[in-house]
């Protein structure tokens, strides 16, 4: 970075964050000739690449191997290890080595990302960005690059990674520790952060960031909350040999997913040894000091008439959900309206409703889009186009798939049955347990199912040039099963493009594959 770049005070666009949303918009505007500055308080790269999707999927990949081998134990897969029970794995995860492998993906990211910004001519800043006026941002150097964690007092910080990065990528300002820059436009793309919890002893909770960088996996882990992060991590940890419990406050975990399929996933999770307690809100977490180490988790066992109960664990992980990361931004000073649970309030062009110089994309933005990587990237594309050519593009959130990367994965796109009912739509449901289908049987997977909602056309409804059969659009698809994270994309395509059931059935998919099963699901 040339000193002259750092001395520069005015930019066409200031981007806050270096995740998927930030990066997408920054490159697009820079390549159109704009001057662009980008700021992050943590190592460059954002959640997906460093602390989310990518590292997680590396661990899921390893857990998947253990699961596959275990499932096939009585069907021709063997080694010399003695196994005491059917679920005892023939092979084991070596956590430290797996973590080292994971780090080969995450560790190069900050440096590569920053070099790539420099190559593109984007000016980079390290520090916390705060609004000082509607078009001004103050960048304050932060020492641990870890500010955006609402549960700051985490005891288990085993994570040397951030410190290493900090040494290499400290603030490169002009001598002082604060700098103010002006932006003709500003993009807020600060992502999300674990929801602050009101539990006594919440400071003992480990975040997902830290779980994904654990040097050792403890033998007893409790996950607080039954969201997708808890389920994914629980499936990893169970396959790596830990005893795992999920405590979920209400009756239905994984609220955004089809409840019938969630029930099958619960059975699978229990089958691999995960203890799931529903109606079990956590009240207190206490550090055990006498005679042993670990934590005591107090919860109400509402299935047992609200009886108070406790469970002991070596580690307690926050899996109770995430909220937009608005802390530190001083949005009021920037005249930016927001909702602390939903994010920056934007209009249909993703522009702040109160400050026309400001746009927002990704997890931090209050839109109908789910907090997912493809959505963050898509919204940022739209923001960049609207910045460069004036407001003209609006996001279309139809047919965006979402997956719980358990083993097997639970995948979903489009409407839930309740939504279709609420909307008064006429639809047909195909809902089946598919564990006796060839695709599940050949891998000895006993837990698989699907539910597809298809719009039923009635004479004269649907309009347009289509005949009746052409009106049988896919409304929603929900699949629990091997490779469902890939198969769901076929339904996503159908929903987004408005393809009818007949159009899909006209496809000839390769065989034998899970995609081929789509024909039988319709
Ligand atoms: C454990 C986990 C697993 C996930 N798995 C998946 C998955 O499998 N598939 C999927 O699609 N999505 C997944 N997600 C969600 C996905 O990671 C996010 O939707 C996506 O990364 C959001 O991108 P973003 O650009 O909006 O924000 P982020 O990538 O979070 O980037 C925001 C950046 O802003 C920085 N920042 C925040 N405040 C400030 C400030 N005041 N000043 C300067 N910088 C600031 C942060 O340090 C951060 O680097 C997962 C998330 C988690 C936590």
Would you tell me which CATH topology of the largest domain applies?
FAD/NAD(P)-binding domain
Q: Which spans have pLDDT < 50 for at least 5 consecutive residues?
A: 144-176, 459-468
Q: Structural class, from helix and strand content?
A: alpha/beta
Number of alpha- plus pi-helical segments = 16
Within CATH, the superfamily of the largest domain carries the name FAD/NAD(P)-binding domain
Shape: globular
Helix coverage percent: 25-40%
Report, as a whole number of angstroms, the end-to-end distance.
Answer: 56 Å
Number of strands: 24
Biggest sheet layout: 7 strands, mixed
What is the residue-mean pLDDT, rounded to a whole number?
Answer: 90
User: How many structurally independent domains?
Assistant: 4
Rg from Cα: 24 Å
Strand content: 15-25%
Overview of this protein structure:
The chain has 522 residues and is of the alpha/beta class. The protein has four domains: 202 residues, FAD/NAD(P)-binding domain; 51 residues, no CATH class; 117 residues, 3-Layer(bba) Sandwich (FAD/NAD(P)-binding domain), CATH 3.50.50; 120 residues, FAD/NAD-linked reductase, C-terminal dimerisation domain (Enolase-like, domain 1, 2-Layer Sandwich), CATH 3.30.390. It contains 16 helices and 24 strands. The strands form six sheets. Strands 1, 2, 3, 4, 5, 6 and 18 form a seven-stranded mixed beta sheet that branches. Strand 4 and strand 5 form a beta hairpin. Helix 2 runs parallel beside helix 11. The longest helix has 19 residues. About 8% of the residues have low confidence. Flavin-adenine dinucleotide (FAD) binds next to helix 2, strand 2, helix 3, helix 4 and strand 4.
């Amino acid at each position: 970075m040339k000193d002259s770049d750092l001395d520069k005070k005015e930019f066409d666009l200031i981007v806050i964050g270096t995740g998927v949303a930030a990066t997408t918009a920054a490159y697009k505007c820079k390549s159109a000739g704009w001057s662009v500055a980008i700021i992050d308080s943590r190592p460059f790269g954002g959640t997906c690449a460093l602390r989310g999707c990518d590292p997680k999927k590396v661990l899921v990949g390893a857990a998947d191997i253990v699961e596959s081998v275990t499932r096939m134990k009585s069907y021709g897969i063997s080694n010399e290890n003695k196994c005491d029970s059917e679920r005892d794995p023939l092979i084991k995860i070596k956590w430290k080595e797996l973590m080292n492998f994971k780090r080969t993906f995450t560790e190069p990211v900050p440096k590569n990302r920053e070099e790539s910004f420099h190559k593109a001519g984007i000016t980079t800043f390290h520090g916390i960005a705060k609004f000082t006026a509607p078009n001004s941002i103050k960048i304050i150097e932060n020492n641990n690059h870890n500010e955006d964690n609402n549960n700051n007092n985490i005891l288990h910080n085993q994570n040397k990674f951030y410190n290493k990065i900090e040494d290499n990528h400290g603030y490169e300002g002009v001598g002082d520790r604060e700098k103010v820059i002006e932006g003709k436009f500003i993009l807020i793309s600060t992502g999300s952060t674990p929801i602050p919890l009101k539990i006594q002893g919440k400071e003992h909770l480990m975040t997902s960031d830290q779980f994904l960088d654990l040097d050792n996996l403890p033998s007893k882990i409790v996950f607080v909350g039954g969201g997708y992060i808890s389920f994914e991590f629980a499936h990893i940890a169970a396959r790596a040999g830990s005893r795992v419990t999920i405590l979920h406050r209400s009756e239905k975990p994984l609220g955004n997913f089809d409840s019938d399929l969630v029930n099958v996933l619960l059975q699978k999770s229990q089958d691999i040894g995960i203890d799931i307690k529903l109606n079990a809100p956590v009240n207190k977490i206490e550090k055990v000091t006498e005679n042993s180490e670990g934590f005591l988790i107090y919860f109400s066992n509402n299935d047992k008439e609200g009886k108070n109960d406790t469970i002991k664990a070596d580690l307690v992980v926050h899996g109770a959900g995430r909220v937009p990361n608005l802390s530190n931004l001083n949005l009021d000073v920037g005249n930016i309206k927001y909702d602390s649970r939903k994010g920056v309030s934007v209009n249909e062009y993703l522009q702040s409703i109160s400050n026309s110089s400001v746009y927002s994309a990704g997890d931090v933005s209050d839109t109908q889009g789910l907090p997912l990587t493809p959505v963050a990237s898509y919204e940022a594309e739209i923001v960049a186009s609207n910045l460069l050519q004036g407001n003209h593009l609006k996001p279309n959130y139809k047919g965006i798939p979402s997956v719980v990367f358990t083993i097997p994965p639970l995948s979903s796109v489009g409407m839930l049955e309740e939504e279709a009912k609420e909307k008064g739509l006429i639809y047909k449901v195909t809902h089946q347990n598919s564990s006796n289908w060839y695709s599940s049987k050949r891998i000895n997977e006993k837990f698989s199912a699907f539910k597809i909602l298809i719009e039923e056309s009635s004479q004269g409804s649907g309009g347009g040039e289509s005949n009746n059969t052409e009106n049988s659009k896919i409304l929603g698809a929900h699949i629990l099963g091997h490779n469902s994270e890939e198969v769901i994309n076929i339904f996503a395509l159908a929903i987004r493009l408005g393809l009818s059931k007949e159009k899909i059935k006209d496809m000839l998919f390769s065989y034998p594959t899970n995609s081929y099963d789509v024909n039988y699901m319709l």
